[in-house]
Specification:
The chain is mainly alpha-helical. Among the domains are: 94 residues, no CATH class; 56 residues, no CATH class. It is built from 8 helices and no strands. The radius of gyration is 38 Å and the shape is elongated.
Amino acid sequence: MEWWNAWWVLIPIAGMVVGVINRGQAGRLRQAKYKHELEMQRMQLQAQQQPAVESTQRDALTPPVSDDDQLARVMAEHDEVTGRWLDYELDVAKLIAFPAMSDGRRDLTAAFLRAKRTADSLRPRSADAKLTSEQMTAYRDAVTDYAVKFDIAEQDARRIRDADFTADERSRLDRARQLLKTAVDTSATNAERQLAYRRVRDEIDGLIVLSPEAVTILETKVGKEITPGPATGATPPAG
């Protein structure tokens, strides 16, 4: 048989060759895909394990917190919150701007003041004090409660400012704010400062209660010549 007469025999042979080639390529593609999937799984597993490894490494490098260190930290937090409270309690300008912080009739203010008293009552005399586990837990929880309730009361006071006062009372507080600037202005004369100070006291009388400490600090800023008067808001003696 001449080869040109047997061309029809070559067709199935060619098909077989192409099929083998295609199967080989498909196999290589499946193998590559399989390797890729394995690599992705390995990377995901490594990513999941990495935080645990880092945490373990940090724990190994970080010494455990002793009871003394924990107490010192809680006492420091206690002091920090009290310091923030005193920023209002002793600063007349802040009390005029945010009067709710000194108004124990408001629920949120009363709540943080109660929490303060609880934390103060549980506070040990020093960071060297030896507390039982129960005492430490009670003190830590009290300080946390104090901090949270102070934050809530502060946010509320800054939100409402003087909204709880009447229009006339807000006008008095605004005049007090302006007069206070003159009372502590070192460029003003001593007479001007004293007059402004007394007018400040008149304007806020009955609206804001000043602690004796706040009065002393303010009078020191105004001038030592001023004769200290009774704390604003104090009940006058019966006549």
